[in-house]
Hints:
Belongs to the RutC family. By secondary structure, the protein is of the alpha+beta class. It has helices spanning 47-64, 85-92; strands at residues 3-5, 20-23, 26-32, 72-79, 102-107, 117-124.
Amino acid sequence: MKKCINSELAPKAIGPYSHANSLGPFLFISGQLPASPVNGEITVGDLKAQTHQVLKNLKNVLESAGSSLEKVLKTTVFIKDISKFNEFNEVYQTYFSTQFPARSTVEVAKLPKDAEVEIEAIAYLDHGVQ
């Protein structure tokens, strides 16, 4: 049975969706924006600062569901300026071990709240649905 997960440690959803859904041993995490879990405001700063916040939010959702960054199988990255790909990667690689998840990166014209980056993920749950 599907289980909806919403974390108190991540910004509230800005639409009709859950932070994540689990089914069996898999966790599907909605796109995370660089928003503060406290007030929902977008992180002020460059792409690196926003990427750090997105990955912190992703980590918090994973942990609230009983998973972790080490169990991420796939990420999809939406970035407004692909010319900043290397800047993004500098931050991204500090959150994952050498066994990086599979990943797609797509340049987009605009993101919600005019964010610079958004990341969604698929992760593994050792315990399945709880």
